[in-house]
Fold:
Amino acid sequence: MCIGRRPYFDGLFADGLALETDGKRIKVNERFETSIPGIFAIGDVSSKIQLAHYASAQGTACVDLFCGVRNDVDLSIVPGCVYCRPEIASVGLTEAECKEREIPAAVGKATMYSNAKTLIESGDRAFMKVLANTQTHEILGAQLMCEHATDMISQISTAIANHMTAEQLLKAMRPHPTFEETLTEALNDLADHYNK
Structure:
């Protein structure tokens, strides 16, 4: 059973080193600097998002800031992955979040019941779902539940970061048989929805 985690700050810092916390994490500014100038924090100790790839991206961004190097990684686009069978991966906005934010969104879906690779390897229930803004056609998010979903979600992360549309993603040929060819079907379904 998993009941979560909670921070334990007692005795963590040297006497007289009073880093400001919110009770759950160390507070930092947009440059990862704590309440004490020259002391920086990244990852689980300072972030609401507790994922290794997010902490790694923060670390790279922090070091780049030290060195005066430009870092263009968008830390707001964070893929989430569940390593079960079938795998689950998501990035960006969901339908509910689009409705809540009053963003006009279309949804493209494709099941993988007839996907050759799914039939060969598992036969599990699987699907891909992609969302885009109906006005700009830019990809807003995706949810995948299929074998290797965690390997494929970066395609959508890249699309969101670069303000790409379904039409732009459809320009790329996807090989057969692969799991990701179902992404083409979901993107076609999406394009059909906002081209009506």
